[in-house]
Write a structure and sequence with these properties.
single chain, Immunoglobulin-like, four-stranded mixed beta sheet
Length: about 220
């Protein structure tokens, strides 16, 4: 009879934990923290979670995935990337973005009696380049413009002999396809802002030309 009572108590505690950690979203979202996931591992009470299940990164960036557990004294964690060409993950959970695209990281948490899995979606975007790197890579001239459509226009211009081939108002390059021989133009209002034109994502700051960055 005592065994049955302990068993019932354990089940009640496990169900209570599941309700608090998984079913009640307001408790989890109040602090904007990831959900805990309760698992049945009778008679133990076990719960696991990642620090995030969705991460957007840029090429070359690194990020540490972390696993938190409740009720696990001994465990082994295995990390695996679905596509190592997009992003890799180390044995300690360090993710490195390699190329533009999407993949997922699978985390297997192994105990003596069971294995619990989590996944984290990884989206890798192109990397930001600063002005000097941009000029060196594409042989472009970057300068201020004052009288083209709006004041304080930033111009990204190709070499002198190819200028004028595309109207300044035309923003048509797609990230990853920036080419010498074309003219790319945008404008802002003296602040760090982003504009999206036909697949172009541009970040710049007129206070310092060296801070100009183009997503390529």
């Amino acid at each position: 009879m005592m065994i049955m009572k302990k068993g019932k108590i354990s089940i009640v505690m496990l169900l209570s934990l599941a309700c608090i950690l998984t079913i009640n979203p307001s408790a989890a979202t109040a602090k904007q923290e990831p959900y805990w996931h309760a698992h049945t591992d009778f008679p133990n009470i076990i719960a696991t979670r990642l620090n995030t299940d969705n991460k957007v990164m840029y090429c070359g960036q690194t990020f540490s995935l972390k696993v938190e557990t409740i009720g696990m004294k001994k465990k082994k964690i295995i990390w695996k990337s679905a596509n190592k060409k997009i992003a890799t993950v180390s044995s300690s959970g360090k993710v490195k973005a390699k190329a533009v695209g999407k993949t997922k990281i699978t985390i297997s948490i192994k105990t003596a009696s069971a294995t619990y899995k989590h996944t984290c979606k990884i989206t890798v975007t192109p990397a930001w380049m600063n002005a000097s790197d941009l000029k060196a890579k594409y042989n472009l001239t970057i300068s201020y413009g004052k009288n083209i459509y709006k004041e304080n226009t930033i111009l990204i211009e190709p070499p002198e002999d190819t200028r004028g081939q595309i109207p300044y108002a035309c923003i048509s390059y797609v990230p990853g396809t920036l080419e010498t021989g074309k003219t790319y133009t945008t404008y802002t209002n003296n602040a760090d802002v982003r504009y999206m034109f036909d697949g172009t994502d541009i970040l710049f700051n007129l206070e310092d030309l060296d801070k100009l960055k183009i997503l390529v």
